[in-house]
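Write out this protein's structure.
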Amino acid sequence: MIPTFVIGLREGLEAALIVSIIAAFLRRNGRSLAPLAVGVASAVALSLAVGITLWLVETSLPQAAQEGMETVIGAIAVCFVASMVVWMSTHARGMRHELESAARQALGTGSSRALTSMAFLAVLKEGFETSVFLLATFSSSRSTGLAAGGAALGIVCAVLLGFALYHGGVRLNLRRFFSYTSVFLVLVAAGLVVAALGTAHEAGWLNAGQQRTVDLGWLSPPGSIRGALVTGVLGIPARPVLIQVLGWFAFVVPMALYLLWPARHRPGAAAAARIRVGIAAGLAVAAGALALLVTPATLPSLGPAKLVDEAGAAAGSVRVAGGEAVIDAGSSRTTMALRDGRAEAHEGVGDAVLYSDRLGRPAAGLPRTLSLEQLIAINGGRLPVGVSPQQAPGPYRAGWTRNGERRLWLVGDEILDFSQSDVTAVTLTGGGLETSRTLTVAGRMPGGAVVAGGSLAAAPGRVQAAQAAASAQSVAEVDRRFWGRTMPIVLVLVAFALLAWTARATRVLPFRAARPVVVKNLAE
């Protein structure tokens, strides 16, 4: 409630001051106030329409789009506050004189339409700024009702002060009033910066700098006065992330220096230009340092991946070396060429690459005939379904085939997952069988011959470790792109803006310096 009250009072008083000064000037000159009232009422109605429209548009959007719109509105509100504070700090003292001079010039044309337009545009500007600022504050407020009540109370107080100023019953030190409220508004706007960075992350626009920094729960416990002040008024969350802390300081520090720097120690125009050039050079150096020093994120080495069989028992390992995968399974070692990989999301890792290899090949070294005992041994110790020892006692003619597939997922150069299916099939004929029978078999036969079969997979712990490493690398890469690419570009743009400001001020400076000389010569 307090932030919206100050916003309503501050913005409303700015508009009320302009209207009261113009109204008093019209009254002294015997002009009607009706056109002025119409202009002010139209501006107020249009400002309300803008605020309501923005609110209706925001509430009608999906959640992610709402977060994005809140980010945009918050950024605009922060820009409004910054420009308002800077302008008011230099024009508050001479506001009345400037307005009366403009009013006198407008009345010189013989019409009050110019004054009415002046009041309309002034109220419209303040009303639009108030709508955007309050909408951003409502979005970050815990209670929309209290926030709206504070804004309404502030505007009512501003209108009453405007009437008092118009009738001459109140004399207000504008410079001191705007100085005090400017400091408070800077802190409120810094809270909006923090909130906008938070909603930008929720909208999916900003994923860098999300590391936890400090826990301010002790400073702003829920339900306490301190919590209402720190979180509700100043907009500082209990657990800010890195980008929010940096954004808060990046806004507060320069604005506080501008507002609170003693007037007697403020630099002159030439010195200020040199300071801006120095700041621009420092920003350019910082941008270059970030671009050079922020290195790409790398995936930590995870080593070979352990393998397990279908029963979960240890069955060997797989590693990547020299452009191929080496599979050590028991006493056998095979290789798999890593070529023709394709991107395929796997186990939550979006940038994984899949390599596959078919294992279709002849089953060498196996007997051409099988006895009934051998058939039972490679069929898991049981007689195959449909084979009767009385009607088909064997021996059987055996035709062997071996098929399977290996699949290896890599993330970077590290193994994410591995699977292998190796199936040996035997086709039996003769031995009393009326028709041929094809069976999938595996195991050791009497006499020592081994029939390959079964499946292999990466141990579950390996998959989880690779997932965690890939996730950490993805987060680090997002941070790297932000700090190593985006931030240098932002710093360079700010540096160019400062140089453009300095160049403009430098062009204006000689004219300002020459004016006293001209006046002196005219006086002589």
